[in-house]
Amino acid sequence: MDLSEFNQLPADDARTALRPCLDVDRWIDGVVAARPYSDRAAAQDSARTSANPLSPDEIARAMSHHPRIGEKAKGASAEAAHSSREQAGLGSLEADVQDRLAAGNAAYEERFDRVFLIRAAGRSPEEILAELQRRMSNTDTQELAEVGEQLIQIAALRLEGILA
Predict the structure, then answer these.
(1) Exposed, middle or buried: residue 78 (CB in 10 Å: 0-12, 13-18, 19+)?
(2) CATH architecture of 3-162
(3) What segment(s) does the record annotate as region Disordered (predicted)?
(4) In contact, 152 and 22? CB cutoff 8 Å
(5) Whole-angstrom Cα distance, residue 8 to residue 36?
């Protein structure tokens, strides 16, 4: 759909279209309420600001739809399709990189009790591994804020894809 179509959708249909971008009602309601958008940049700006920062409960809900980095999303949902496209840039990972990601994911999950989340689109495997290592030194509060920011970045990219 294009921006004009999105602007004209009934509110419930717009909410349905947005939910795979970020399953956070406050974000969805903010993006829908700010319509009509004059251009895609305005829609992107709304996607980045509507629910920033996310609450811990919102982050937990949104995280339930994200696979581990380097792993394929399961199922045929819109969220799984988005995730597959976002991680497609990682290509076929060499065994060494795959092993390092798996070890990093396990260490992160042990440390923070959730999967490591990062906007994969536009990042190389080495950049992702470096971010994973850097974020391991975050406090719980710092890491929760970073996860929220990554969710917002992912949501903005997904909205861009919907409106393309």
Answers:
(1) middle
(2) Orthogonal Bundle (1.10)
(3) 64-92
(4) yes
(5) 8
The pTM (predicted TM-score) of the whole model is 0.87
Q: Give the tokens for residue 6.
A: 């999105």
Residue 87 to residues 41, 43, 93, 123, Cα–Cα distance (Å):
24, 23, 11, 9
Q: Residue 27 is encoded by which pair of tokens?
A: 């974000």
129-139 confidence digits (pLDDT tens): 999 999 999 99
Q: Are 43 and 37 in contact (CB under 8 A)?
A: yes
pLDDT digits (tens, 9 = 90+) for 51-62: 999 999 999 999
| C-alpha span between 83 and 158 (Å, rounded) | 9
What residues does each domain of the chain span?
3-162
CA–CA gap between residue 58 and residue 60 (Å, rounded):
5
For the record, the structure tokens of 110 come out as: 């042990």
Sign of the dihedral defined by the CA atoms of residues 106, 62, 56, 138, in that order: positive
